[in-house]
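Quick start: read one record
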Amino acid sequence: MTISTNTQTERLDFAVDAARQASKLILGYYQAADLTVDLKRDRSPVTVADRKAEELIRNLIAESFPEDGVLGEEFDETPSKNGYRWILDPIDGTKSFIHGVPLFGTLIGLEFEEEVVVGVARFPGLNEVVYAVRGNGTWWQRGDGEPERAKVSAVAELSDALFCTTTFTGWETHGGRDVLDRLCAACGLTRSWGDCYGHILVATGRAEIMVDPILNAWDAAALVPILQEAGGHYVDWNGVPSIHTGNGISVNDRLRDQVLALVQSD
């Protein structure tokens, strides 16, 4: 079965609007003095904003596309009846959100028969959105301005590259400290502008490399079409564009092979 261009565009428009509605809800809790933070079984934080934002998006999907499946971070999966599956992270970067730092985002990806075809990343605290659908490029809208085509950078030397990552402790716990050291030594600049924000910096040409040693499917799904349609790559540490292997790399086209060589080096 193939997915029509009209169907892709319809669902992209829906996802952009759903992310906008979720953004408005999330901002109602952002920097609130009385925000309650709970810990999940894996010790990661969650707030009422995470849960309510995912509930909102799930309800919108159920109303508009009742046969579509949903996989989200905060609630049980709803099986697909038609090959479509939405993959949601209502607040990617909850720790940033909790600390009042605006580098968190709402991620909405859409799979069709296990291929991610739509990706939306909205940053409520920055009032920016980046989105893509297969075959139509990646677009970046800041505030109320007109969307502009997003492209990865043309940097071809690691010594000129900006490398981003999320947290240094994640590298320690997953045995990747040697990889981190190699990347920091090879790249011109390293910054911990992490979570989805770092990946979107690559898609919009503001950074060249973002590497995460720990990622879930909901962290990664929206990034695949966004990076690919921007002329770059979202891949796992084996160089495969998979969202299910637990780690991820966003990189511009010219540095892909060099970065994979550093990651895979013994």
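Residues 5-27 form the longest helix (23 residues).
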